[in-house]
Amino acid sequence: MKDLGSLMKQAQAMQEKLQEAQSRLAETVVEGASGGGMVKLTLKGSGELRSVEIDPDLLKPEDAEMVSDLIVAAHADAKRKLDAAQAETMKAVAGPFAGMPGFPKF
């Protein structure tokens, strides 16, 4: 039974680490950019879009489609960065358990 108690303590410690990681991930903010920085946006750890910045030179009616494409590309860039930050955090917390079936993914 001593081993079971130790295992339960380890499981509880892992759960606490996961909760801490979730809190850190929720506070993560990443920036994505496209068009050489002409379009920038920021995403929170939850995936929520916080802001969009568009270079005024792009705000011409004939550039509307290009601006739309640049916004989508900037979002994809930020999402990749967010996914990488989340994966790195989970890898650090979970160690050898990361990626196992039933283990939380973010």
Task: Compile the SSE list and pairings.
Layout: H1 2-27, E1 29-34, E2 39-44, E3 49-54, H2 64-94
Antiparallel strand pairs: 1-2, 2-3
Helix pairs in contact: 1-2
Write up this protein:
The chain has helices at residues 2-27, 64-94; strands spanning 29-34, 39-44, 49-54. With 106 residues, the chain is α+β, with helices and mostly antiparallel strands. Strands 1-2-3 form a 3-stranded antiparallel sheet. The model has no long low-confidence stretch (mean pLDDT 85).
CA-based gyration radius: 20 Å
Helix content: 40-55%
Main sheet attributes: strand count, strand direction, barrel closure: 3 strands, antiparallel
Strands of the biggest beta sheet: in what spatial order?
1-2-3
What is the CATH top level name?
Answer: Alpha Beta
Reading the helices and strands in chain order gives HEEEH
Q: What does this entry show, briefly?
A:
Helices cover 54% and strands 17% of the residues. It contains two helices and three strands.
